[in-house]
C-alpha cells in the first residue's frame, strides 16, 4: 500500500522522519509492504513544496542542508501555507510536527480540524491539541472516518501510548506514575554529583535540554501536559491541564535535599502521576523522594519512564528516551505503520 504524506512543520522531527524514509524506506517497503511517499512539506520559515508524484527525501534534505530553505527546490507546487497544504496536498496522512502553545493548542488545533475536515489521517508529535482538546480531536477523527495517532507526544518514540492502549488492552489501568520530563531528571541526576541547581540548569541549557526560559520544564508544566494526554487517552478520564496539581516543580530542591535523600537510601524525582479512585481522578506533578527500590528511582539523566498500574499484570514500567531526533521520528514511523495495519485490516 502507498501512503502519501504531507508534512506540516519541517524542523528536527519532520526532517528526522524524512531521514528515516531516505535511509530505511526500502526496508520498510520490503518488510511491511508499505510505500511511504512525501507529497508535500510546509514549514513556517523554510517554505513549502509539493509534488503529487512524490518528493525524494534525500534530495529535499540535501537541498535544505545546502540552502537552509525549501525556496527554489524544483517542484510543481511551492509556497502553500499549512492550511492550504492540509487541504490541497494529494496526501493520505498529515504528519503534524509543528510548534504549539500547550495552553491554547494553537496553531496546531486548526491544523487538526482542517485535516479531519479534509478527510485525511493524522499523525502528530505535537502535544498542544492533545492537551487542550484530546477527546474532541479523537471524536472529530472518528466522525470523519480517519485515523489519529499521537505516540510521539509522550516519551517520543518509546512506545508508551500504544503499549497502554493496545499492549495492555484487557487490563484496567487505574493510574500511572512517571518521569515525563527529561530536562528535570537530567538536572536532579547532575545535582547528585554535588552541583547546585543554578549550575545544572545552565548545563541543561547549554546542552539544549532546557529552553532559555526553562519554566515549562522546571515548574512541571511540560510533564503536566503529558499527564493530561495519558489521563484522557489511556485512563479515559476527561482531565484538563488546570486539574493537575503543580507547585514549584524542582525549583526549590537544594543540594542539601538531594544529600539527605541519598543518606536515607532515597532519590528526588519529579513524579508526574494520575490515579482514578472511586470514579474520581487525582493528578499531580510534584517532586517526591522515592526509595531506590522504586523502578522510577533508577531512571537517570534525560531518560523518561512510566509505570502503569494495572489490575491483571500489576505494575508495568516502560523506560526509554523522552526526546530526540531519531527517537521522535520513530514515533511517527510506528504510527504510520499502525495506520497502515489498520487500513489493511479494514480492506480484508
Ligand atoms: N524534538 C523532540 O525531541 C520532540 C519530542 C517529542 C515531541 N516533539 C514535538 O514535536 C513538534 C516538532 O518538534 P521539533 O523538535 O521538530 O521542533 P522544531 O525543530 O522547532 O520544528 C518545528 C517546525 O515547525 C515550524 N512551524 C511552526 N509553526 C508552524 C506552522 N503554523 N505551520 C508550519 N510550520 C510551522 C517551525 O518553523 P519556525 O522555526 O520557522 O518557527 C519549525 O521549523 C513540537 O510540537 C514538539 O514539541 C518534539
- What's the mean pLDDT score? 97
Q: If helices are DSSP runs of H or I spanning 4 or more residues, what is the number of helices? A: 13
The major beta sheet can be summarized as:
7 strands, mixed
Percentage of residues in helical conformation: 40-55%
Taken as a percent bin, the fraction of beta residues is: 15-25%
Q: Measured on Cα atoms, how large is the radius of gyration?
A: 21 Å
Helix/strand/pairing category? alpha/beta
* Heterogens: NADP nicotinamide-adenine-dinucleotide phosphate
What's the helix-strand series? EHEEHEHEHEHHEHEHHHHEHEEEEH
Low-confidence stretches: none
CA-based shape: globular
Total strand count, please? 13
End-to-end C-alpha gap: 13 Å
Strands in their spatial order, largest beta sheet: 4-3-2-1-5-6-7
Question: Top keywords for this entry?
Answer:
single chain; 348 residues; alpha/beta; six-stranded mixed sheet; 13 helices; 13 strands; binds NADP nicotinamide-adenine-dinucleotide phosphate
General description of the model:
By secondary structure, the chain is an alpha/beta fold. 41% of the residues lie in helices and 24% in strands. It contains 13 helices and 13 strands. It has helices at 12-32, 57-67, 82-88, 108-117, 127-132, 134-144, 161-167, 182-191, 197-206, 215-218, 221-233, 255-263, 325-347; strands at residues 2-8, 35-43, 47-55, 77-78, 93-96, 121-124, 148-149, 173-179, 245-246, 266-277, 280-291, 304-310, 314-320. A seven-stranded mixed sheet has the order 4-3-2-1-5-6-7, sandwiched between helices. Strand 5, helix 4 (108-117) and strand 6 (121-124) form a beta-alpha-beta unit. Helix 8 packs across helix 9. The longest helix is centred in the C-terminal third of the chain and has 23 residues, at 325-347. The protein is globular. The model has no long low-confidence stretch (mean pLDDT 97). It binds NADP nicotinamide-adenine-dinucleotide phosphate (NAP). NADP nicotinamide-adenine-dinucleotide phosphate binds at residues 8-14, 42-45, 82, 97-100, 107, 125-127, 152, 156, 323-324, 328.
Amino acid at each position: 500500500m502507498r501512503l502519501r504524506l504531507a508534512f506540516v512543520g519541517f524542523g528536527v522531527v519532520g526532517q528526522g522522519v524524512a531521514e528515516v524514509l531516505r535511509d530505511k524506506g526500502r526496508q520498510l517497503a520490503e518488510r511491511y509492504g508499505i510505500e511511504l511517499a512525501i507529497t508535500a512539506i510546509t514549514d513556517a520559515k523554510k517554505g513549502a513544496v509539493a509534488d503529487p508524484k512524490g518528493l525524494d527525501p534525500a534530495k529535499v534534505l540535501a537541498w535544505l542542508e545546502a540552502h537552509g530553505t525549501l525556496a527554489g527546490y524544483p517542484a510543481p507546487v511551492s509556497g502553500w501555507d499549512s492550511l492550504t497544504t492540509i487541504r490541497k496536498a494529494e496526501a493520505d496522512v498529515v504528519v503534524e510536527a509543528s510548534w504549539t502553545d500547550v495552553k491554547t493548542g494553537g496553531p496546531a488545533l486548526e491544523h487538526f480540524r482542517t485535516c479531519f475536515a479534509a478527510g485525511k489521517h493524522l499523525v502528530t508529535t505535537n502535544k498542544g491539541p492533545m492537551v487542550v482538546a484530546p477527546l474532541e480531536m479523537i471524536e472529530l477523527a472518528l466522525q470523519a472516518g480517519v485515523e489519529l495517532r499521537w505516540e510521539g507526544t509522550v516519551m517520543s518514540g518509546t512506545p508508551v501510548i500504544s503499549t497502554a492502549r493496545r499492549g495492555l488492552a484487557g487490563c484496567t489501568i487505574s493510574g500511572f506514575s512517571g518521569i515525563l520530563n527529561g530536562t528535570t531528571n537530567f538536572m536532579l541526576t547532575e545535582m547528585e554529583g554535588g552541583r547546585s541547581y543554578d549550575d545544572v540548569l545552565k548545563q541543561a541549557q547549554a546542552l539544549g535540554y532546557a529552553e532559555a526560559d526553562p519554566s515549562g520544564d522546571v515548574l512541571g508544566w511540560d510533564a503536566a501536559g503529558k499527564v493530561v494526554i495519558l489521563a484522557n487517552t489511556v485512563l479515559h478520564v476527561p482531565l484538563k491541564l488546570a486539574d493537575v496539581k503543580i507547585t514549584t516543580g524542582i525549583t526549590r530542591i537544594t543540594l542539601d535535599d538531594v544529600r539527605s535523600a541519598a543518606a536515607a537510601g532515597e532519590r528526588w524525582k519529579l513524579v508526574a502521576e494520575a490515579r482514578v479512585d472511586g470514579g474520581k481522578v487525582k493528578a499531580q506533578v510534584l517532586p517526591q523522594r522515592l526509595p531506590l527500590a522504586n523502578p522510577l528511582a533508577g531512571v537517570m539523566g534525560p531518560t523518561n519512564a512510566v509505570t502503569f498500574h494495572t489490575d491483571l499484570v500489576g505494575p508495568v514500567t516502560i523506560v526509554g528516551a523522552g526526546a530526540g531526533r531519531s527517537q521522535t521520528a520513530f514515533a511517527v514511523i510506528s504510527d504510520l505503520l499502525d495506520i497502515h495495519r489498520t487500513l489493511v485490516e479494514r480492506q480484508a
